Amino acid sequence: MEKERDEQGFMDFAQATGDKILSMKNPLVVHHYDCDGLSSGSIIALALTSKGVPFKMKVVKRLAEKEIEEIRAENSGEIVFSDIGSGQIKLVNVLPLETDIVIIDHHPAPEKPNENIRMCNPHDFGVDGNIELSAGSTAFYCFKHLESREILQLGIVGAVGDLQDYSKTGFIGLNRKMVEWGSEKEFVFVSKDLKFFGRVTRPLIQFLTYSTEPFLPGLSGDEKACALFLRDNDIPVKKGEQWISYTDLNVFQRKKLIGALVEYGKSRNLTDEVLEELVGDTYLFLQEPEKSEMRDATEFSTLLNSCGRHDKADLGVAVCLRKPGALEEAEKLLSEHRKMIRFGIAFAQKNTMDVGPFYFLDARGHIPDVVIGIVAGAFFNSGVVERNKPIIAFSYDETKQTKISGRASRALIEKGLDLGEVMRKAGEAAGGLGGGHSIAAGCTIASTREAENVFLKKARQIIEVQLQLLSKVL
Asked: Does residue 40 share a domain with residue 151?
């Protein structure tokens, strides 16, 4: 039964949760390793630091029995989980009852927490954490009363990293209210603009050359063709001897470039849906240095994702906390991260198969598990394939188990698709563990033909029913 929506109740509960965390003596902050986990964990760290409260941090890729035992061994009487814990509440409930535990999360919880656990979760207040609050933006509401620019920015970055910034609408619900509050405080500048990655940091030619969402046939990957395209459309690429970025263009030049890209996309048969998504809400943090990834929410989120997914989560937190030298080190990692993604997309273009209810990419041995979900999403959104079905991709994780990632579109979700349910049920049928959000989810199973066949068969059945491709009910 769905709970009645209570936004004010959520915001009051969130602030009380933040105050509870600030009253702790020396908590252990356990956070997920992706962008939203790093953002929310760093928000908690910033809040505790502002009040002089000591703390320790621990990053996890997953929360299973092994990680719970590691957390138990820390022997901490106070634990704060962020972007993880609700979906694994059965495991968190086995921690000692005398432990003071707080969970800040946006994933649905399968059962109630023990009395020693305070869980701040939008789902408990009738607010959908899949689409309108991430862990980062939930953490923002916990500490909104501190009126911190850095906390607001990380709330936005976490939600962007968790794909809650939709092309047609931008943020919705409480995410939108967060941005409106930040805009009033002049902590963020919001505008409708071109959404390509690299708007702030990349010179214009490279900005187009490395575009992947959408993939522009004849331009993406061809630096010479991009230079000629800009020249033919009278778009400057230099100011004096300095290469300029997209954000250096004036409003008339930006409109001209967007118009030229739309016409080019039409000439290359990109769908109207893909072309409409060229432009959407963008979020600039004008107090951050120019030409810095931290100035643009999308670039900031990608930077944090690259840290987390390459076993450098501590570096991502250091960037968020403005530690000296951290940004420069993370920028080097981001460069390698983007190279891996470009290689992965090229592989996906040649090897993705249409298997009926979904597209299937078997990238085991070719694309690392740390970027397989990003590659699947980027290829899915590239305009190369019709987005009338989700994509499921296989890779190997560090233990040689099969890591599975699924990505979809908002239109498919509105038709009934829920990849979180697909991964959870198909993963369980195959003896693995899965879950996530309706639009992006993942699973890990044994690397055996039997487990993989069971997963694919079950996933097919669930997707067919969700999208009403079959009349039967599972």
From this structure: yes
Spacing of C-alpha 411 from chain mean position: 18
How far apart, in whole angstroms, are the C-alpha atoms of residue 186 and residue 280?
20
**Owner of token pair 């059962």:** 111
41 and 135 Cβ atoms separated by less than 8 Å: no
Strand partners, 119: 103
The amino acid sitting at 17 is T
Torsion of CA 310, 316, 319, 324, to 10 degrees: -60
Answer whether 0.90 is exceeded by the pTM.
no
The continuous run of DSSP H or E covering 239 comes out as: strand 238-239
CA–CA gap between residue 190 and residue 173 (Å, rounded): 16
Q: What is the pLDDT of residues 311-322, one digit of tens each?
A: 999 999 999 999
Asked if residue 128 belongs to a domain, the reply is: yes
Residue range 340-398, pLDDT digits in tens: 888 999 899 999 999 999 999 999 999 999 899 989 998 898 778 888 999 999 999 88
Q: What is the pLDDT of residues 136-195, one digit of tens each?
A: 999 999 999 999 999 999 999 999 999 899 767 889 999 999 999 999 999 999 999 999
* The residue type at 113: P
Phi-psi region of 358 (alpha: psi -120 to 50; beta: other; left: phi over 0): beta
Q: Are residues 331 and 458 in the same domain?
A: no
CATH code at position 449? 3.10.310.40
- Residue recorded with tokens 């501190």: 146
∠ CA 267-273-274 to the nearest 5 degrees?
Answer: 60
Query: Which domain, by its residues, includes 417?
Result: 355-466
- Structural domain count, the chain: 3
100 domain-assigned: yes
Residue 200 lies in a domain: yes
Same domain, 145 and 209: no
SS3 state at 353? strand
φ, ψ (nearest 5 deg) of residue 405: -125, 140
